[in-house]
Amino acid sequence: MKSIATSLSAAGLLAAAWAGPALAQQTPLKIGVLTDFQSVYSDIGGAGNVEATKMAIEEFGGSMFGKPIELVTADALNKADVAATITRKWYEAENVDMIIDMPTSATALAGMEMSKQFEKIMIVTDAASSDITGKSCSPYTLHWTYDTYANAHTVGSAIVKNGGDTWFFITADYVFGHSIERDTGDVVRAAGGKVLGSARHPLNTPDFSSFLLQAQSSKAKIVGLANGGGDTINAIKQAAEFGIVAGGQNLAGIVMFISDIHSLGLKLAQGLIITEAYYWDLNDRTRAFGKRFFERMKRMPTMNQAATYSATLHYLNAVKAAGTKETKPVLAKMRATPVRDAFTDNGVVREDGRMVHSMFLFEVKKPEESKAPWDYYKVLAEVPGDQAFRPLKDGGCPLIK
Fold first, then answer.
1. From CA 131, how far away is CA 354, in angstroms rounded?
2. CA gap 124, 201 in Å, rounded
3. CA gap 94, 89 in Å, rounded
4. Is 67:48 a contact under the CB 8 Å cutoff?
5. What is the pTM of this model?
6. Under CATH, what is the fold of the domain 30-146+282-358?
7. Helices (H) and strands (E) in the chain — how many of each?
8. Could you give the percent of the chain with pLDDT greater than 90?
9. What does the pLDDT read at residue 319?
10. At what angle do helices 303-322 and 327-336 cross, to 10 degrees?
11. How far apart are alpha carbons 240 and 277 in whole angstroms?
């Protein structure tokens, strides 16, 4: 486990002029990015999330209350106990004010316990379980990018409406995969379809053969991939080798990213129906951010990376508006201020911590339809946030009375 500390500053002394003597005496604002640098989720977050955080800090000006904003990073190793240990150390001993990213739902839920204990802010931009703002919600945690409920309702509903009414799930065997299977299964059954079964695999497994054979034998029209990152990529590649699609079944990538499409290539990924919260080629503001990110990383940002930039910038603006780093005034400002940036132009932060915004339904282009590198998606629909995300009253969040 490795922690890297970086200090980013720009004209820090100038900020003291407006901050006033009392505010200038505060300790430096410190942000922690707890991510996956080298495993199954490194492409969708990882170093790209660190770079996105730096971009937000630089855009803000690099300093707060006359002192340089500090950034620390670490690898959670996709283990809940590691995440709990790091978040405890950061909050308790290293004066970290806000932690962002959290690569898996298990690491997010473990970190959220530390966030509650120390009453400090956590913003989840990678993990997806809808429980984060449901039964496990916290007054100190915000969930920014997407969740299993939104993805299930956006993609699952579209597929069932188009005739995909029998499903078999290949599921990552931890809270994230279980949440996808549960939420998508609910959508399928509500629409009159049937779930014929599921096969659960370990995180970051190299061999999907036994799980794909079970899916084939189920005769389900849709094989739902209730996993993410490298697991989804490997499942799709091996499904092609097994002739899943050639045999008449279709794959549903319920949680997929542009980095997955890039790794698969359009020949293999063409025709997939997926949902994302951000695509670099949607409009002028998404293209501008995508270009800036590409200049630094030599690849287009995933929705998680764009969301990490968005959440960091929103947090920094809230600290400035509140005039303090104290948790409760900052969270109040974050909830009271609409989110309008390169990630979304219609975001709002709810009482349960869910940042609600539009989701987009995409179809992956055929190779001959793509006009340039990273030109991968056709927009099928923009789904308003109040339709994509679970209604506040239905989440089971104890904060909602």
1. 11
2. 24
3. 6
4. no
5. 0.90
6. Rossmann fold (3.40.50)
7. 15, 16
8. 91
9. 98
10. 120
11. 27
pLDDT at 26: 66
Low-confidence ranges of the chain (pLDDT < 70): 1-26
> What is the SS3 assignment for 40?
coil
- What amino acid occupies position 279? Y
Residues carrying CATH 3.40.50.2300, the chain: 30-146+282-358, 149-281+360-388
Yes or no: say if 128 and 255 are a contact pair by the CB < 8 Å rule.
Answer: yes
The CA distances from residue 326 to 125, 192, 285, 333, 343, in Å, are 22, 49, 31, 11, 26
Question: 247 is written with which tokens?
Answer: 């045999």
Query: What does the angle CA 205 – CA 209 – CA 214 come to, to the nearest 5 degrees?
Result: 115
Three-state secondary structure string covering 71-133? EEEEECCCCHHHHHHHHHHHHHHCCCCEEEECCCHHHHHHHHHHHHHHCCEEEECCCCCHHHH
Identify the architecture of domain 149-281+360-388 in CATH. 3-Layer(aba) Sandwich (3.40)
